[in-house]
Amino acid sequence: MTLTQRLLSLMRLRPAPVPGGVWHLTGTRWSAGLTDEDMQQIGAVCPPRPYRKGERIYHAGDPGGTLYILLDGHVKLSRTSVLGGESVITVCGPDDFFGESFLTEMATTQADATCLSDRAVICPITREQFLEITRRVPTVAILLASILATRVHELQTRLESLSQPVQVRLAQVMLDLASRFGQETEAGIYDLHLELRHEEIASLARASRVSATQAISAWRAQELVLGTRGHYRVNVIGLEHLIEELQLDALQ
């Protein structure tokens, strides 16, 4: 049973207040360390709320101080660039956390959070609610501390990847999205259902839209990435080999 099914089977789904920020933790799988009783206690303090595709969870500049736990669906975190374009920070999926102002005590949020899937279910948690949750379920604080500790190394690795060639960064983004949100349909082949345009994929890799379009077109010819926005078929093994080749070429 998924996290959403566990929560929604233990409580009635009803609206809860919004606000938030930019900080995020992805791929946490934190709920695996909680029991159904723990989930019931969390849901009693902060009931989940549904969102529709394109709906904003919060805008940059909204009041901060809220942590968001994504139970189901996908959410895009983005900023508006100085030129007025959109810069995608990350895509969050089930079991991910986001909301920078929750930890930093910033007065306002620093990014936009938008529902990317047809439907998303999110638990917004204020600091006061979080303290109540940790009182009822002490395991939550331990899990969050453990997750934060493991993210230090991952952040360092991500910063180091910015020095990699553009094609490597783009391939790493596709691998990350496929591993987190895709479904393996055959050995090394993942079906990825995610509403991302080429410019959004480029933004995740800190590359230009032209670079992303050229790379994806080349990968399509090599049958490494097939399909288009909304449905990609990703050859994970092939992309991993491509990254190795590109990194070796860069060293020569």
UniProtKB/TrEMBL annotation:
Pfam families named among the record's database cross-references: cNMP_binding, HTH_Crp_2
Gene3D superfamilies named among the record's database cross-references: Jelly Rolls (2.60.120.10), Winged helix-like DNA-binding domain superfamily/Winged helix DNA-binding domain (1.10.10.10)
Domain Cyclic nucleotide-binding: 30-133
GO terms for MF: DNA binding; DNA-binding transcription factor activity
Occurrences of domain HTH crp-type (ranges): 164-238
This protein's UniProt keywords: DNA-binding, Transcription, Transcription regulation
CDD domains reported in the protein's UniProt record: CAP_ED (cd00038)
Name of the protein in question: CRP-like cAMP-binding protein
